[in-house]
Automatic annotation (TrEMBL):
Superkingdom field: Bacteria
The species this protein was found in: Polymorphum gilvum (strain LMG 25793 / CGMCC 1.9160 / SL003B-26A1)
Name listed for the protein in its UniProt record: Cytochrome B561
InterPro entries for this protein: Cyt_b561_bac/Ni-Hgenase, Cytochrome_b561_oxidase, Di-haem_cyt_TM
PANTHER family in alphabetical order: CYTOCHROME B561 (PTHR30529), CYTOCHROME B561 BACTERIAL_NI-HYDROGENASE DOMAIN-CONTAINING PROTEIN (PTHR30529:SF7)
Family: Belongs to the cytochrome b561 family.
Domain Cytochrome b561 bacterial/Ni-hydrogenase positions: 9-163
Main location: membrane
Keywords associated with the record: Cell membrane, Electron transport, Heme, Iron, Membrane, Metal-binding, Transmembrane, Transmembrane helix, Transport
One cellular component term from this protein's GO annotations in UniProt: plasma membrane
Spans through the membrane: 12-30, 50-75, 96-119, 134-153
The keyword Methyltransferase appears for this protein: no
Subcellular location: Cell membrane
Keyword Nucleus among record annotations: no
Length: 166
């Protein structure tokens, strides 16, 4: 029996979207703290309390992003997502490409970060750092697109990520 496509995101999908968005923004803004923590530990120094707190939050928030993204992918596969909003073939392609890259980064950023921190894989650390500008670029495109829908097209695309009601 084929599963019918939902007309809205579920409240769980909406909650995960905003929690992960907040966690990713935190990682982008305060991510440098993990470098300070690593430097202090390599030198055998006791890290400053704030550096230690922010560095550990970077690790735990990264793990949370990974777990929540796996749940999100599971929900997308099993429950589905509402159909794409109407638009040109090009805008549809751009939207799908941005979402696919977001999912790739949300999985690869924590995995490479964990490999660099716990397994000392240097190349993983380099890839992890290169993901920051990629995230910033994607978020800028994504937020501009959401604002375009809200204030220029004046459609309900923003509302789809705010309420699970049809
Ligand atoms: C203020 C910031 C943000 C706004 C206003 C926003 C808005 C939205 C909206 C309105 C949608 C639904 C589009 C639709 O119905 O097709 C959406 C989907 C999505 N957003 Fe965001 N978003 C923000 C931040 C983020 C961030 C930081 C990430 C990634 C870390 C992200 C990742 C995604 C993904 C992957 C989807 C697609 C969901 C799916 O169908 O699988 N968003 N966003």
């Amino acid at each position: 029996m084929s599963r019918s496509q939902p007309t809205t995101y579920s409240s769980t999908q909406i909650a995960i979207h905003w929690i992960v968005a907040a966690l990713v923004l935190f990682q982008i803004v305060f991510g440098e703290s993990i470098k300070d923590l690593g430097r202090a530990l390599r030198r055998g120094e006791a890290p400053d309390a704030m550096v230690s707190l922010m560095g550990n939050l970077h690790i735990w928030f990264g793990v949370a992003i990974l777990v929540l993204t796996l749940v999100r992918v599971f929900l997308k596969v099993t429950r589905g997502a509402p159909p794409a909003p109407p638009g040109s073939a090009l805008s549809l392609f751009a939207m799908k490409a941005v979402y696919a890259l977001f999912y790739l980064l949300m999985l690869a950023a924590p995995v490479t970060g964990l490999a660099a921190w716990y397994l000392s894989v240097d190349v993983a650390g380099d890839i992890h750092e290169a993901m920051k500008p990629a995230f910033v670029l994607l978020i800028a495109i994504h937020v501009l697109a959401a604002l375009w829908h809200r204030f220029v097209l004046k459609d309900d695309v923003m509302g789809r990520m705010l309420s699970s009601r049809p």
